[in-house]
Amino acid sequence: SPKGRLYAVDFAWSDTSQGGLFRLDATETEDGKQGVEAVKVMSLDKPSSLTFAPDGTLYVTVFGTAEEGSDEKPGKLLKIKGDL
Q1: Residues 44-54: tens digit of each pLDDT
Q2: Rounded CA gap, 22 and 35, in Å?
Q3: pTM
């Protein structure tokens, strides 16, 4: 992100309701080794990619889930603003 934080999206194939946007925070284990903690920022319906604009706005694409009986495509481009 423009603020130097690392983010990732997870589709969660085994349980798509668990997918979302995650912030990856650096950690240190008890024995002094470097680690990472994934902090869920928001749930998303089958996310696929993300990118930040220079102004800090986050854009995320999601495959989504089609509503039963609908002819509309479920995919979306989400615009996320805030302190990311």
Answers
A1: 999 999 999 99
A2: 15
A3: 0.86
